[in-house]
Amino acid sequence: MTGAIGASGGKQPSELSLRIVFGVLLAGMAFAAAWIGGQVFAGFTAILAALVFFEFQRLCAHQVLASVRLLAGSAVLVSLAAWFVAPTWTIVIGGLAVAVVGIWEWLLGRSSWIALGVVYTVAPFVALNTLRGDSAAGFLVLLVLFACVWGADTVAYATGRTLGGPKLAPKLSPAKTWSGFVGGLAGAVAIAGLVAWLAGYRANGAFFALALVLALSSQVGDLLESALKRRFGAKDSGNLIPGHGGVLDRLDGLILAAVVAWIIALWVAADVSGGSRAGGMAETLAGAIMAPR
To answer: Under 8 Å CB-to-CB from 182, ≥6 apart: which residues?
Structure first.
């Protein structure tokens, strides 16, 4: 996310105000959709996923033929729509789109970046909706995930602006600092623990280990998107969200963190009966990392 890990110069007051207002607005919408769950959450995340792909394909437009981008985009939309009929087909169609488009472009000696765009779109959509499932545990797991991602972003930004110091990755994102990076990790873990406590749960060691991994994944996702924008010579992925840039700029950390959380939940639930069904993964993961107070 733009400026997420601190900047030495900082934002202008008006831009910072926009960042705060729209950040709170988007967080509130995500919270409400996650709380309602079901098709409302699926619809909300599907819209965000479609916008992510639109911005991604626009970033690499000068290296990928319009016909190929149209084909990949059509596959993404069909894949997202399939979730409302048969969720398994979302993974099948998305996977086929990645394989076909990626291999086709590679065989023709052209750029395969658009295949990565499909992954960026479909993988986090599946991860978020599978984790949410239809249980209260799914909502709780998403709250912890959001706390890690938004906590890392917010605390990193504040710490970096306050302390400054050596740059984290000047060639990728000159504004990010080591102080912001470390502060973001610590802040995310603390905020995630607070969220669990407020929800009536006691976090254990596995909880804080998971929170640290998710916070780290969020910041790595931020850096990956910075590298992507630098690769294609763009400052922001778009301008849809005032103070933040594009949807991809706002969701960069969540994209990777959600997929990592999904993989960890699959691993934890692998040997547990019912862990593969929607909601079961979240219940198993929640039970492994926290207990009612």
So the answer is: 159
- Give every CB contact of residue 184 below 8 A, 6+ residues apart in sequence: 4, 5, 151, 152, 153, 155, 156, 157, 159, 215, 219
Cα angle at 38 between 190 and 148, to 5 degrees?
15
H/E segment holding residue 75? helix 66-82
Measure the CA–CA gap between 72 and 100, rounded to whole angstroms. 9
Give 203's contacts (C-beta < 8 A, 6+ positions apart): 192, 193, 196, 197, 289, 290
Q: Is residue 1 part of a domain?
A: no
Q: For residue 252, is it within any domain?
A: yes
**pLDDT tens, position by position, 71-127:** 999 999 999 999 999 999 999 999 999 999 999 988 888 888 999 999 999 999 999
Helix axes 38-59, 247-269, angle to 10 degrees: 120
- Rounded to whole angstroms, the Cα distance separating 200 from 290 reads 10
Q: What are phi and psi of 245, to 5 degrees?
A: 100, -125
The pTM of this model reads 0.89
Q: Tokens 């949807």 belong to which residue?
A: 247
- How far is residue 113 from each of residues 100, 106, 108, measured CA to CA in Å? 13, 10, 13
Q: Would residue 107 count as lying in a domain?
A: yes
The more confidently predicted of residues 42 and 2 is 42
Q: Tell me which residue range forms the domain holding 76.
A: 13-292
Q: Using the structure block, give the residue that is written with the tokens 């894949």.
A: 79
Specify the number of domains making up the chain: 1
121-159 exposure pattern, b = at least 16 Cβ within 10 A, e = fewer = bbbbbbbbbbbbbebebbbbbbbbbbbbbbbbbbbbbeb
CA distance 206 to 211: 9
Task: Mark residue 290 as left, alpha or beta (left: phi above 0; alpha: psi -120 to 50; beta: remaining).
Answer: beta
